[in-house]
Amino acid sequence: MTRSGSSDAEDAEGAARPPARAESPPVHAEPPSGHAEPSSAHAEPVERERELALLSDLVERVAGGLPGLVLVEGPDGIGKTTLLRSLAERARARGLRVLQARCEPAEREASFAVLHRLLGPVLEKDAPWCGVAAGPVPNLLSCDNVIAPDLPYGVLTELFRVVRRASAPAPLVLVVDDAESADPASLRFLAHTARRLAGLPVLLAVSRCPGTEVAPLDELAAQPLCQVLRPRPLTERGIGLIARRVTGSTADEDFLRACLSATNGSPLLVTRLLAALHREGRPPTAGELARTHPRDTALLGRRVVEMLRRQPVTTLRAARAMAVLGEGAPDDLCAALALVDPAVFAQAVQALAALHLVTPPLGTAEWTFAHCLVRKAVLADMSQQQRTSAHRRAARLLHDRGAPAEQVAEHLLRSGAPAVEPWARAVLRETARAAVRREAYEHAVELLRRCLPEDPGTAADPELLVDLGLAQIRLGSEEGIEHLMQALPRLTDPERRLTALTALVGALVQAGRVPRAWELVRCHRQETDEAGEEPTGAQLLEAHLVLASHGNHQAFRQLLDTASFDLDLPGDTPGERALLAVRAVIRTSRLDRVAESVAAARTVLARGIPPTDTPGALGTAAVVLLYADLPDEAEAAFRRLAGRADVTGEMQYAALLALWADACQRQGAVDRALATSATALEGAPPEHTGSYHALAAAMRLHALLDRGEEAGAAALADRIPVPGPGSGWQWNEYLAARGRLRLAEGDARSALADLTEAGERQRAWQRLSPAVSPWWYWAGRAHAALGDTAACGALAEETVAAARSGGLPCALGAGLELLAVAHGGRRALPLLEEAETVLADTPAALALTRVRISRGRALHALGHTQAARKVLRQALETAYALDAGPLYGEARQALLATGARPRRPVSRGPAALTRSELQVARLAAEGRSNLEIAEELFVTQRTVETHLTSVYRKLGLTGRRGLRAALTGTDASLPPGSGGEEPGHMTSTGRDPADNFASWQTD
After folding, report:
1. Which residues lie below 8 Å from residue 464, measured CB to CB, with a gap of 6+?
2. In whole angstroms, what is the distance from residue 574 CA to residue 572 CA?
């Protein structure tokens, strides 16, 4: 494979670079003491005793069946590659299987480039252990539609299974050098594997340069198992040892001090400097060193240039061709670019190897530069005109040989000149389309700019302008608007024109130019009417305009004054359904005609036909249900949408997952909310948190607090930046969640500040319905914590009135509970009874549990002890089933206060399952669907889902897979404390009346 990039890794202390191919034999070129020139004999790295001892311990640990994880971190030339090679040699000597890969910057855009080399041996048919890697992974690695960073979790799981199966015959060592240069897909695999090493005889060793902010590597380094090695620069003693190895003589102290000052203790520079002195017959003395005036890596560059200029012209041309094409380029291609015969090129490679500038091919390995600095020095010695000409000729040679478009385009870019020839423009545009598919928009813009005419007065191809404008708009550049405006009058294809219009309208809205966007929509509608065409395109365009306004508050306010929100459309076409969805969500948020909006949303979801109806339209309809207190219906819609292949783009997928997490959290499905929000936040750097990542962070904060993980919630909040005043509505939800966190931490004043700001922002965005966000509930709680029951009561009364008018049962129940908090005493009890009645018919399990705890306390305060115990037992059962730790603790303390003594639950394993959970689990293990289980046990599907969630948690599972094995050997009898009810009996709430944790002893 030809690699046109250069690696940042190094081989220090005279050791030559190993081939990039995995499972390759080690190559040693470190000179032993007494040899005049570096040889192939092996020598231990200098002043690395501590590092080598730790690596040896890791090898022994893995050989004993335990996992290991090590990160070697340091700058170029410090010896990271040498340490990894030493680790590989020790592992091989111990009989372990070693797989190696070195990362190249040029391959960052190629998904799985590193994994191809790392796992290649266990996937090749001729590998002796190929039987253990049977499965779908070869297809996964070659699948073009698997593009990082939106890598499906299932792909990561299958790849990890390859590692697990490969480690079954013998312990496995995975070595990845220069990991900061790896492609995103491979980086996610490394982080995924690092989290799951427990119990496997696998050692994962990774190196990287410091200062490279790569989230998966940071995550890898943060693993408890990970040991981080940071090799230090050489001391004068270490330089003296290398001097004896390279030159066979002892260097004086003045030389050692001068060499340390010149090289900063870099083993690579020290070795190259000494080798250069020795080749010229100059002794290692301070005087000789002073005459060379070394400072840093420029010394190596000068030495490379000087050596090359003393070689025959064919050798110089060969070196330049190799530098232009990159490591591993085929010999015949290099020869063609150098304008020499293949035989002459082979001789030139041997000559360069004799100069220790390249490593010649050994066996099946490819030639490599001794260090990336060598290649840089060769390129720097070429003039700009020479580099431009060489890269353009390289591009043409690769194109004529049928090389991938990406490889050809890289040389066209490096040439620095505009693409004039039609073949070059075609290659650049093809590569740009591939970059857009993987969301590398900056790269796409760079490629497409090279296709524009040099003369500003020459009209560019409208299709090119559309491609360029679409990519620029994705980057938020207003230049994309101008390019689309230039292309629009000359576009003739209706679909292409609608695509350009859609992007243009959205960009204009985001830029605050709403009138101009409306003008384009009206013009398109008029053109459609005059042509006698269906209005679907114009309707889709208007719907997109409305949706786009949700990212710009000023545009949104303008839209409210100009757009129609009529819900009388029949919903027969995709355009009508898209308009119904966006109009309904705004009406629902404003607490306007909620019932009609719900009906419109159900029409959209019932009649929507993928892929005719876009995920945006169907997802918006699901949000209507979410904001109408129907989270179970909304979750079902989000789940269906998440499985669609046409849900494209990081932001669209993150938004869908965040809203799905919201629906789960409202139902008390804390595990699902945590898992979904974690997926939405994967790969999102905290400092670049976007609007929908902020929404996912908000949902995760709520779920963590529901679980009782305050520390995790605080850690997440600390990583998220403070939202600005003009940020999108999604940040309102984050402020509300952060306010709830502050309240849980006991800082009611800070909590109230966040929650009050969240409420003000919600009103500014016309998100007036109490079902949209719970900010008001936690603000009322904060007022109550500060003793301001009047303010708490005012919020509660406003909410109750709004919820009654909009028919919002979940918001009504929570509002009644908050009103009870404000009133207290006997006035609270009827409010709580109504709240419980209202919430009992909703999926809002957490809200119902809070109400029951409050009602139980109120009953006990009024002397109704038995009634209080009954209500609190129900609250305790539900809190336990939902794994809601704080509510479970509150319910238990309130129950203890009544004199009851609840038995502590068995929290894990089959013995922890209640009878109802065991019944549901066994039926699920037999392959029954949720609907079939519900019909057999005469319960609702929601009850079945609740039981299965609890079963998975208690058995340590993530889904049905493994359920049968986990239940194998389970006694058919009922679990302890399950009572003597008839088999199959469940209460109306779906819980056993005598769960093993709900056996009471009362005084």
Report:
1. 425, 429, 448, 451, 452
2. 7
Question: Which helix (H) or strand (E) segment is 369 a member of?
Answer: strand 368-369
Which residues, at least 6 apart from 935, have a Cβ–Cβ distance to it below 8 Å? none
The dihedrals phi and psi of 319, each to the nearest 5 degrees, come to -60, -40
Tell me how far CA of residue 486 lies from CA of 51, 506, 600, 699, 948, in angstroms: 61, 17, 38, 42, 57
Backbone angles phi, psi at 367, to 5 degrees: -70, 150
Amino acid identity at 210: P
Q: What is the pLDDT of residue 490?
A: 92
CA–CA gap between residue 518 and residue 103 (Å, rounded): 49
Q: How far apart are CA 601 and CA 624, in angstroms?
A: 6
Task: At 325, list the tokens.
Answer: 């094409």
Name the stretches of the chain with pLDDT < 70.
1-43, 123-152, 211-212, 261-264, 280, 288-300, 303, 356, 361-365, 370-373, 645-651, 683-689, 726, 903-907, 911, 969-1003
d(CA 285, CA 472): 58
Q: Per-domain residue ranges for the chain?
A: 49-229, 236-296, 564-648, 649-763, 910-1002
Four-residue CA torsion sign, 995, 997, 998, 999: positive
pLDDT attached to residue 262: 62
Tokens 């192939």 sit on residue: 40
Structural tokens at position 357: 């500038």
- CA 634 to chain centroid, in Å, comes to 25
Helix (H, G, I), strand (E, B), or coil: what is residue 801?
A: helix
H helix count then E strand count, the chain: 47, 9
pLDDT at 937: 80
Superfamily of domain 649-763: Tetratricopeptide repeat domain (1.25.40.10)
Q: Which two tokens stand for residue 75?
A: 């700058």
Q: Which residue has the tokens 């003393």?
A: 310
Around Cβ 364, how many Cβ atoms within 10 Å?
A: 8
* Cα–Cα distance for residue pair 219/685, rounded to 1 Å: 12
Cα 686 to Cα 701: distance, rounded to the nearest angstrom: 14
Residue 52 burial class via C-beta count within 10 angstroms: exposed 0-12, middle 13-18, buried 19 and up: middle
Contact 695, 715 (CB under 8 A): no
CB atoms within 10 A of CB 782: 27
Asked whether 860 and 894 are in contact (CB, 8 A), the reply is: yes
Would you tell me how many other CB atoms lie within 10 Å of the CB of residue 145? 9
CA angle 90, 173, 109 (to 5 degrees): 125
| Among the four given CATH numbers 3.90.226.10, 1.10.10.10, 1.10.760.10, 3.40.50.12780, the one describing domain 910-1002 | 1.10.10.10
**Given this model, what pLDDT does residue 912 score?**
76
Helix H, strand E, coil C: the string for 65-117 is: CCCEEEEEECCCCCCHHHHHHHHHHHHHHCCCEEEEEECCHHHCCCCCHHHHH
Q: What is the pLDDT of residue 263?
A: 66
Give the single-character DSSP code of 205: E
- Per DSSP bridges, beta strands 368-369 and 172-177 are unpaired
Tokens of 251: 């260097």
For residues 510 and 551, is the Cβ–Cβ distance under 8 A? yes
Q: Where are the alpha helices (DSSP H) in 842-940?
A: 845-861, 865-881, 885-897, 915-925, 930-937
Do 757 and 735 form a contact (C-beta atoms < 8 A)?
Answer: yes
Fold of 49-229: Rossmann fold (3.40.50)
